[in-house]
Write a structure and sequence with these properties.
Number of strands: 34
Shape: globular
Number of helices: 14
Radius of gyration: 29 Å
CATH architecture of the largest domain: 3-Layer(aba) Sandwich
Strand content: 25-35%
Number of domains: 5
Oligomer: single chain
Structural class: alpha/beta
CATH topology of the largest domain: Rossmann fold
CATH class of the largest domain: Alpha Beta
């Protein structure tokens, strides 16, 4: 909108205030007829009414047992659902043996799915053409201006301070230490990190930030690169001065790892992840969407029923259409092709408004297009240059990082090294403050050792093993993200050698990762899908009272028509965040109009309360459009007190996260900035003009609201 100016008179002879509203920008190969499967494993669902003990008896007759039971999915359907494993037998033989049992409803292979991504190359906001396309060249390819998801326009209309929403990333894992992701990783309030205890009683030990269902551990380290990239597109931290920004950058990411090799994943691991997701939802965790950037050619009844359980729990399931250049109407790809009502199937589009050459499509089976070519996002820190070492004199000792460790600069940290025994409270000499602590493994957790070192004032910690195991096996962890000091692990032999020497001794500890390089371009419907998942989170933040079905409708009924998607998707359009939040296109967000007017009947240019401010002005200012006395302006003007008696003090109301600037002038022509730009808190703020002390002329003031 163009700048709008309004004048106010004050009860003073020295000043005149002007309100000036100004705008500024906010900032794979083809699917096989049948997928590969895990040999010797089947997924079994028993008929309704068959009790768990009866199911166990039926399996016991065949020398089988319930290897993995999906309790929450079973409860949702009133049917026992489980994975059965017997490696001494073939999958086809297990199916033949079980399919005719009168208690069994379905038995099928434990299919293997594959992630739906294709790597390109090379390496923040300008690279995110899917969010804001100005016609820039991205990764060597030209773009068409305006071909994007209208991210900037949509977030300018976003609800301030939304309630927490959580998005599950069912994938290869997530690097939760990545500086563009760490603060947005979900934290389980019922779990105490690093104590090796299942504190919340959910059957998962130390599931502080999610879980690895492929290896049954709480360490979600990305087994490839896929999950971290997906997570970055959904909810990379915004406005933090580094890297990229996610579509739903105020959402929390729940990493659910289902792959050990970074490429393939078993259906049983996926089912365990979905079962966990339902359990968390039932506990009150506000999970609104699951991202499924994987697929395969075989239909699985167990998988479909698990997605139906998510539907019943109110969770949207965003699925990649696939990368086989195939028509999903005739060559299905699963899970995208299931007809379950909570699935949004996503094709990939290009920066020139085309359907990506690799993308699957389907006039009746694929719902929507989203940016999926040359997508720039986060990459695991393990894939970039990093150094963990300890140097004493001319000897450099090999080291490994503790997960969540703090970092040093590239040349390391040089300080005296002090012996601190087992790192218990009382084991730290006073002189370790400001220096490096050498600690032996044992007695207490690594997190406790490093916490005690920090409390003693140590600036870094070296922990040496009490066994002869390799430092690269069984990674050590501090349990959770946080403001940890640099902490490294060395071998027992090296630790004992150092401990037996004369300490303290000058040492250089290096724990450095080139985080600036931890980003990359990838292609795929895997990259398109998280744009839509982020959109579900965005919808949930702005419309928390809407149902799952309403959120899906808001997304699919408000797309940008794209010729290349006509006849290729059910909507014929690409994701449009702006139309989602402002469905009547009047420049006012639907959530605000509904709250203020009870409907979407009022236009932005209207002035319902006749106070001289349009409805759009009132939205930007955070004032009431139905109360003439509610408008943005200086609410209190007065002289200063005490030693600042000659100051001129101006107060005005603010809206959280909005930016304001006060300016002054002697002649209403030339204006100067008064103080720094102010970020609103939702409460009034005070600005003091100390220059008024020495001014011999009247001074004029104006308040500028800088729209997001």
């Amino acid at each position: 909108m163009k700048p709008v100016s309004h004048s106010f008179g004050f009860a003073t002879s020295r000043a005149l205030a002007l309100l000036l509203l100004s705008s500024s920008a906010l900032l794979a190969g083809k699917a096989a007829a049948e997928d590969a499967y895990v040999e010797g494993e089947v997924l079994v669902t028993f008929k309704s009414g068959v009790a768990t003990e009866t199911a166990k008896t039926a399996l016991g007759k065949r020398a089988l047992g319930l290897t993995q039971k999906f309790d929450h999915l079973s409860a949702r359907r009133n049917r026992v659902s489980a994975m059965v494993r017997e490696k001494a037998r073939k999958t086809k033989d297990l199916i033949a043996d079980l399919k005719d049992d009168p208690d069994v409803e379905t038995v099928e292979p434990n299919y293997i799915r594959r992630v739906s991504a294709v790597s390109t190359a090379d390496p923040d906001f300008s690279k995110l053409w899917g969010l804001h396309n100005t016609g820039q060249t991205v990764n060597g390819s030209a773009s068409t201006s305006g071909v994007d998801t209208k991210f900037s326009q949509a977030w300018a209309l976003a609800r301030p301070n939304p309630s927490e929403v959580v998005v599950a990333v069912v994938d290869t894992g997530v690097d939760i230490t990545h500086p563009d992701l760490a603060a947005n990783i979900w934290t389980n309030p019922g779990e105490i990190p690093g104590n090796s205890i299942d504190d919340d009683g959910d059957g998962r030990v130390d599931d502080v930030h999610g879980y690895d269902f492929a290896s049954n551990t709480a360490i979600m380290t990305d087994s490839g690169e896929h999950g971290t990239h997906v997570a970055g597109t959904i909810a990379a931290i915004g406005q933090n001065g580094i890297g990229v920004i996610g579509v739903g950058y105020k959402a929390k990411i729940l990493p659910l790892k289902v792959s050990t090799d970074g490429e393939t994943l078993s259906t049983s691991a996926v089912l365990a992840a979905l079962d966990y997701m339902v359990a968390l939802k039932e506990r009150g965790v506000n999970i609104v969407a699951a991202n499924a950037s994987y697929g395969g050619g075989s239909s699985s009844t167990s998988e479909r029923q698990a997605i139906e359980a998510l539907r019943d729990a109110g969770i949207v399931f965003c699925a990649a259409a696939g990368n086989e250049t195939a028509n999903n109407d005739t060559t299905p790809s699963y899970p995208a092709n299931y007809t379950t009502s909570n699935i949004i199937s996503v094709a990939a589009t290009t920066q020139t408004n085309g359907l990506a050459s690799f993308s699957n499509y389907g006039a009746t089976t694929v719902d929507i297009g989203a940016p999926g070519a040359n997508i720039y996002s986060a990459m695991p820190l393990s894939m970039v240059s990093q150094t963990s070492s300890l140097k004493i004199g001319n000897t450099t000792y090999a080291a490994a990082s503790l997960e969540f460790s703090g970092s040093t600069v590239s040349v390391g940290l040089t300080k005296p090294l002090y012996s601190c025994s087992l790192g218990r409270v009382g084991d730290f000499p006073a002189a370790v403050s400001g220096n490096i602590a050498l600690i032996q493994r044992g007695t207490i957790t690594f997190a406790e050792k490093v916490t005690n070192a920090m409390n003693a004032g140590a600036v870094a910690a070296v922990i040496y093993d009490n066994t002869s195991s390799s430092i690269t096996t069984n990674p050590w962890t501090l349990g959770t993200t946080g403001s940890w000091i640099p902490a490294i692990r060395i071998s027992m032999a090296n630790g004992q050698t150092i401990a037996a020497s004369t300490l303290p001794v000058s040492s250089t500890l290096t724990e450095w990762v080139n985080t600036a390089a931890a980003y990359q371009y990838l292609d795929g419907t895997s990259m398109a899908t998280p744009h839509v998942t982020g959109a579900v989170a965005f919808a949930a933040m702005n419309f928390p009272g809407e149902t799952m079905a309403q959120r899906i409708s808001r997304i699919l009924n408000n797309t940008t028509p794209v010729a290349a998607l006509s006849g290729k998707t059910t909507t014929g359009g690409m994701l449009n965040l702006q139309k989602m939040i402002d469905t009547d296109g009047d420049g006012l967000p639907d959530w605000w109009e509904t709250e203020q007017f009870g409907s979407l009947a009022q236009a932005g240019a209207g002035d319902l309360d006749q106070d001289g401010f349009t409805n759009a002005d009132e939205y930007l200012a955070g004032t009431s459009p139905v109360n003439a006395s509610s408008k943005l302006g200086f609410s209190l003007l007065s002289a200063g007190t005490g030693n600042s008696a000659a100051d001129f003090v101006l107060d005005f109301p603010t809206v959280a996260d909005r930016s304001y600037q006060v300016e002054w002038s002697n002649d209403l022509i030339a204006w100067s900035v008064l103080g720094n730009t102010i970020t609103g808190t939702g409460s009034p703020v005070e600005v003091r003009d100390t220059g008024a002390r020495t001014s011999s002329t009247q001074r004029f003031y104006r308040l500028r609201l800088i729209t997001p």
